[in-house]
Amino acid sequence: MGKRLTQIATRTGDDGTTGLGDNTRVGKDHLRVHAMGEVDELNSHIGLLLCEELPAPARELLVDIQHQLFNLGGELSIPGFELLKADAVAQLDDALAEYNAQLPKLQEFILPAGNKAAAQSHVCRTVARRAERALVALGRQDKLREEPRQYLNRLSDLLFVLARVFNRMHGGDDVYWKSERLARSE
Fold it and tell me: Is 56 within a domain?
């Protein structure tokens, strides 16, 4: 295991730089630091989602996702290092198939709304998409493995599906978009 933080206020970042896991220093506005921050924010939002009433299997999955996101953040903080494994992407694929099978097919766009758990899952989904965009931008500058990008892509899909699952927990449903154009054509 690498170094553990023994103090939080080190003051080494007062000059606008931060240390990576390989002991290099980069600007706090570096694309790598930006991507790490987006992943950290996503993990924090999932932590907030876990404060809600959730089905036990979904809760267990989300806790595991938090650990995988920590692995992803660690991988981003050590250029060239691999922490997020391909089986983490496969786990999301399996969860997507399982939860999608429980849901009716979408007939219309849905709004990011419903109960609090569903709405927070949608917030997580949008932050996952932003983290994915940050990873794509970093990948144009630095060589990255494809698993981290795939993981965030699948995770955003899963969070959308979970929002639909959470809206149905107590007999609810999706909140459908009321398109004026579609209303006129009916």
Answer: yes
